[in-house]
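subagent[fold] <- orchestrator: predict structure for attached chain, return tokens only, no commentary.
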Amino acid sequence: MMRRLIALAALIALAGCWQDMAEQPKDVAYDPSGAWSDGASARPLVAGTVARGAIDRLESLIVPPQVTPALLERGRERFTIYCMPCHGYDGTGDGRVVQRGFPPPPSYLTARLRAAPAAHFLGVIENGFGVMYPYGDRVPPADRWAIVAYIRALQLAGGVAPSHPARGDVPVDTAFPSEVAP
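subagent[fold] -> orchestrator:
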């Protein structure tokens, strides 16, 4: 009797394993559906809907932070992690990836990039440019500003990477001269 109960319990347990959740009835986004009178399976967003955190994100990209030694140090750290493999230690576009055959990025020391507003660098970090893929999902807005401040420090130093911006190798009041991002 006990063996029959165990066998029955095992059979019931195994029967539950054969349910395939991928083949259950469900609505797939943008497929037609009878759930709504217009035949759509999803409802349109309410007019004026703003994604959670979008306003704070936009505000953090519009107003540049005060350039401090701590911001430059953070920018140096983030630059080393995200930018140096291609742009090189001094921002001239001769990083390790380039040395192994990747197309070189432009030097930050060119007249065009020295004259470019901070918004240009913020946009390139977020959206990518040319063969550079976007870093918007990897680098938060505060770190983007820090990287841009460090790029400005590299430009001011003439391509000589300041070893420790926190010690005052770079004038901190000249990184964002009256620039405003889009």
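orchestrator: received. Logging for downstream: The longest helix spans residues 69-87. The chain has a mean pLDDT of 82.
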